[in-house]
Design brief:
Layout lengths: L1 H34 L3 E3 L8 E3 L3 H14 L8 H24 L3 H4 L3 H4 L1 H6 L5 E4 L3 E4 L3 H20 L6 H20 L2 H21 L8 H18 L3 H7 L1 H15 L9 E3 L2 E3 L9 H8 L4 H26 L2
Antiparallel strand pairs: 1-2, 3-4, 5-6
Helix pairs in contact: 1-2, 1-9, 2-3, 2-9, 2-10, 3-10, 7-10, 7-12, 8-9, 8-10, 8-14, 9-10, 10-11, 11-14
Length: 328
Amino acid sequence: MMVWCVFMYWVLLVFLASLISTLVVTPIFIRRLMESGVTGHDIHKQDGTQVAEMGGLAVVFGFSVGAFIAIPFVNGDLVSLFGAILTIMLTGLIGICDDLFGIRQKYKAWLPIFAAIPLMALQAGDHTMIVPFVGLVDFGVIYPLLFIPVGVAVLANATNMLAGYNGLEAGLGFITCSFIGVAGLIAGRPLVYVLMFAMAAACLGFLKYNRFPSRVFPGDVGTFTIGAAIAAAVIVGNMEFVGVIASMPYIINGLITSFSVARGKPIQKFSRTENGILVPPERKYVTTLYFELERLFRLTEKELVHAIWLIGAAFGLLSLAVFMLIGM
């Protein structure tokens, strides 16, 4: 009983440290970013609202506080922990460069591969994976050389693509990371729940200022970091299948968008707003998960975000159910 109490104390400490530090520093970042002119137009508001950009720096800070506080708790596998943190930070750095200088999409898509080098060098994770309808498969050297960099790049870009609405990125990040963290807690894999609860708490703290009507946007530094954290956690914790299921909203949106782009459709990134209702671009333009939801239902921005949160929660529950049924 005493061991369990100490165990839960550390988990709670990691979560609270990330949450409180993010709550404290986000207003500071908002003020400094506004003063520096690092702002963006909230395109779904008709009053021309200017909002602080690159607020994801606060998420990175809050996550880092929680992750480093957890060091004594995972001292048996510090190499993997530091490898995961380094990959997450390098991916966040790519996001910063994109926010500041604007990286062309064809480069931005594969740059996170380089951020995955620490995990590749460590050969992080177990090279065996449970493949549906096949069973346990040993991928050998293919795992660190292919699966790790592709996993980091795909999730970093996928989280970056499912964005653009007040509270969407932070809220869905909180939901996805929380479910993966719970699965890691049940499985007894400290690296998973430390990384995921630290990121979930940082997203939750940031959501206070990012929810509708938003005072700050996460920017690519925020979305890239969230995606890299999910990828790194499930890789070092050998919970890839759980991560894939929990991340399905990102993956589905990425597939819808990619197929649409492959068909040569022109890009129109944003909906327009009519009397508070979101109106998606015409079918001749590239489509997304959120555009399809806007076509199916007449939604306000807040309703759309809540709908995607519910989809994320449904896949999170499914990931837990599958995990409990077959174990991973």
